[in-house]
Design a protein that fits this description.
This protein is mostly helical. It is 44% helix and 7% strand. It has a two-stranded antiparallel ribbon with strand order 1-2.
Length: 541
Amino acid sequence: MKKIQYLFTTLVLGLALTSCGDSLLTQYPEGEVMLEEQFNRLTDMEKLSGSVYGIYSRLYQYGSHSIFGERSIDMYGDMQCGDMAMAISGYGWFEDYERGWFYSDVLAGTPSYLWSYYYDIINLANRGLLVAEKYEKDIQNLRASGTITKDDEELATMGYYYAQLLAIRGWAYDNLLTYFCNPMDQLASTMDVELAVPIYTVTELKAGTEGEALATIEEVYDRIYEDLFDAIDYMDFFEQKIERGSKLEINADVARIMLAYSMLNQGTERGKVYNGQDAYEVAYDLATDVISGGKFPLLKQADLTETGFADINAANWMWGEEVTEENSTGLASFFGQVDIHSYGYASAGATKGIDSKLYNAIPAWDARINWFRAPTMTYSYAPDGKFYCPKTRHTVKNSEIDRNWLDDNVFMRVEVAYLIAAEAAYRLNDNTNAEKYLTDLCSERLLTGKTVADFTTWLTATGIKDALIYNWRVEMWGEGYGLQTLRRLTKSVSLGTNHISRASAEINILSDYEHYQCAIPSSETSYNPELVKSLNELTTK
């Protein structure tokens, strides 16, 4: 591998950088690529801010009509597990994922995209952290002092950028574990020897490494936890003086949910992981801290079908992208693929909707039935009360639907905190709190005329585990949680009839886990000798 930059095709020796408040560069993908020599002429503050916003631009970068950053990856996972269904073959985009070929050799480009996407983010974070390293001791001393004076404001701003870089790096490593590693129940107690993905930090970047060997799952989790715990600690301190620029920026609460979700997925095979607590205890505390903080209220019952899940100003959105004319990827976007009220593939026939069997499982009390079109309607099962352009929601006429694609992208909602808290409590045999957080969420999901008693009666009959699975799949539909929910909580799922080739199929994600797990791309195994060496050592054991 030609140094670490190989992972990202060297980025033309450059970084796509953006500046939050000034015009350093226009935002990617509309902007230009900054060359290494240009980057080196910047001040350290500009380098840090450029690294941070360059990473954020990656979350919505355009590659093709099925590759447009994080929201396309959300679609991949939900389609692969069957929760998002496509019943008609049309234009080819996402069709392979609908057919269940996500991780197969048929679709070799998907692992390569996921690998390069997350390692691109890690590389950019490491470049920014390399700059911040010069100020790391001063940042730590400022944090230890407990006070930010006017003279400290520039250093505090650097510290806040530093924290964001740590958080996004930890989050990227966690996503790599999700897509490239076995589900946790396949690992038993072997996380300390089971190989995962390479770890790259500032040290490796400075050394000009030829590529790192595969680290163990335990080592990757250690990297995730160190990055995210440090990020939270710094953010809690610096947020006293520094105002969050927009919801595109990661703040302490977003980092808490990133870490809580990672803990939830890891499980308790490692025993105590932090301050004498196991992973579920830490996940519960982090999620409930966000909930009790009260900064992000639940989406209310009255607004359940009124927002379109298209506005970053929604109070329950924790992290997201405001789509403007400058950063829009147009037709190649989540709404271009999913919204029947926008000009795009969904309105043209390649409609994506909720799996019909999952739709039929929505109980009589649940107002989320109105998020999706009934089977008797045109565009059956398509999202309608969820993910639509508010300006054109009352029409599907080709001449009237939205053609601007300026609806915002959600990356995290507070509702996920309630689901993490409920599941972590359930894993800790604390059914009282598991029921509490499920009830808190579902009390805002009641149809008119229904009461909490209708929900609790259903919960008693259904059981907490099944209620968790149901709520993860329905509440978070289209937001990328479906595949990991089924890997983490259940062994099989029966699909409905509205699929191109998997209609009524029975899929067992855990026993057939290799079909739901990415292989390391051949491009990487061809150019990283250290990685190949660790793979060879694994196969000879």
